[in-house]
Amino acid sequence: VLAELIEKFVSHLSESRSDCYFSMGNYKATDAAVKNESLSSLQQLGVEMTVRYGKYLNLLKEHAENELRFVLMNCEKFLKQEQRTVVSSLYCLRERYAGYDWFASSVFLIMSGDGEKTLMFLQRFSRLLVSAFLWLPRLHISMHLPIATVESGIHPVYFCSAHHIEMLLKAELPLVFSAFHMSGFTPSQICLQWITQCFWNYMDWNEICHYIAVCVFLGPDYQIYICISVFRHLQQDILKHTE
């Protein structure tokens, strides 16, 4: 039901010019397009973890690994169309996104391992502003960002979402904010980790689906509110650890 709902919602928005923040060229996902491509060892490890988790949740069947590889390689190829060429010694600014694509993997599980549906959804989703915040590889060395931002190697989620989380945390949960301040560890660091991993290894699958759905339906600012609500939920534990 969730797959159908977000599919219809994104399909509807992506056809409306006023809702499309990014314009994307037409990309046709084919086996031939990625025939000579291969995944890095880190991505391969991520694929194995995703498939293991998907089977544990009874969402995936046999051959899911090949389908997911197909999705990830096509996503890389498709996003490459809007990437800049950057000369930098920073590892994170190499041609390939340095981490694993947890958002695409989450969508793959929501779509019950249907690679074609996943790619179709991601292509439409990439036109919307919310894709910049939920799908981190979307803005990797992107031409949509100022060159100075690209060269810094800092993702906009860090200086937009994480910055606002810290501001809100100070106002809404001053004790939690103080606890972080005393520890010398910033809330934005842990939030960036949560967001990058799409809350995998932190929340149950149902809650991960709710996080994605809420941000897609209500807008990227809900990413901030969800992080604040997690901190509110963990307040007693955080204060106990601080003591």
Automatic annotation (TrEMBL):
Pfam families for the chain: BROMI_C (PF23440)
Position of the signal peptide: none
Xref: Gene3D superfamilies: Ypt/Rab-GAP domain of gyp1p, domain 3
Annotated BROMI C-terminal Rab TBC-like domain residues: 1-243
Family matches, as InterPro entries: BROMI_C, Rab-GAP_TBC_sf
Protein's recorded name: BROMI protein
Provenance organism: Eurystomus gularis
Gene: Tbc1d32
